[in-house]
User: What shape does this take?
Amino acid sequence: MKPGLLLIGGATQRMLDRFTAEFTLHKLADIDDLPAFLKDHGDSIVAVATNGGAGVKPEIMDGLPNLKVVSCYGVGYDAIDVDTCVKRGILVSHTPNVLNDDVANTAILLMLAAMRDLVFNDAYVRAGRWEKEGSTPLTRSPENRTVGIVGLGRIGETIAKKLAAFQSRVIYHSRNRKDGVPYEYFGDLVEMAKESDVLIVITPGGPATNKLVNREVIEALGPEGTLVNVARGTVVDEAEMVKALQDGRLGWAGLDVFEAEPKVPAELFSMNNVTLLPHVASATHETRQAMGDLVCDNLSQFLKDGTVQTPVPECVHLT
Ligand code: NAP
Ligand code: 8YV
Assistant: This one.
C-alpha cells in the first residue's frame, strides 16, 4: 500500500500526477468532515504538501501521528509551526532559489511603477483624459537612486544585482553583515531608511520581523521615499503605513503582500501613490512549475532515503 499524502491548498495537474504515482492522495479541499477524516485516515498520512499561505493548522498536525515530512510550495514558511515539527522529528522542506529572479523582478517592477506613476498614467489614458486634459505631471527618474534592501538574502541579493542596471547605490540592513558583497551595511534600519530613496523589504515573516518597518522607519524614509514590500505584510506596520501615505509623511508604496490577505486596507484603493498586487511576485508559469517540481522532488527523495533536497534551516540536522 502507498503511504498517505495530505494536500493542503492547490496543485497543478503535473504535481498531482507525481503525487498519485507515489502516494495515496487525500485533498483537504475534498474533505467534508475533518475530525472524521483524521480519525479514519490520520494514521496513514506520512506526508503533507502545503503552501506558504495555508501552512499546517494545529488541529491537522495533531491529527497526523505518523507525519514525517511537510513539503512547502514557497520559500517563506512562517505559516508552518516549525518548532513543533522539529520536536516531533518532522522534516520541513521549502522552495528556495528557483523564485529569486521573478520575485526580484517584481520588486523592481513595483519600484519603477511608483517612480513613473505607472498606474495613474495608465488610468488617465483609459479614462480618455489625455485627449481632454493634456499631459500628466512629470515623474521621478529611477536612475542613480539610493536603494535600501531590508534582508539581503537569496532574493535581496538578486534584487541588488539587478539594480546595477539603474546605477543604484545599494545599501542593506539585516541582523548580520554579509561577507563578500559590495554593498554598505546598516545595523540600524532607521539610519538606513534616512539614507534611502527606496526601501525594498524582503525578509522572512514571523514574530522576529513583525512590524520591523514601523512608524519611525516609515518617517525616516519620508515624503520623498518609496516603500516596496515583497516580503510578508506583517513585516510592515500596515496601519502606520496607510496613515503616513494619507498624511504625505510617506511618498509612495508598491505592495505585493498585506497583513491579512486577501484583505487589503480599503483606504489604499483610492490612492494614486500606491501600486497594489495580489501576492503574485513568484506567479509566472516558469517559476511556479519549478516550485511545484521541487515540492515533488523533496517528497520523492524523502520516500527514497528519508532526506529532502531543500530542508528549511531549522530541519537541516534531521536530514
Ligand atoms: P533568505 O535567503 O533566508 O533571506 C532572508 C534575509 O532576511 C537574510 O538576509 C536575513 O539576514 C534577513 N533577516 C531575517 N530576519 C531578519 C530580522 N529579524 N531583521 C532583519 N533582517 C532579517 O530568504 P529569501 O529566499 O531571500 O526569501 C525572503 C522572504 O521573501 C521569504 O521568507 C518570504 O517571506 C518572502 N517571499 C515573498 C514572495 C512573494 O510572493 N511576495 C516570494 C518569495 C519570498 P539575517 O539572518 O542576517 O538577519
Ligand atoms: C508564494 C511566497 O506565492 O515563496 C513564498 O514565500 O510567498 C510565494 O512564492 C506562496 O508561498 C504560495 O502560496
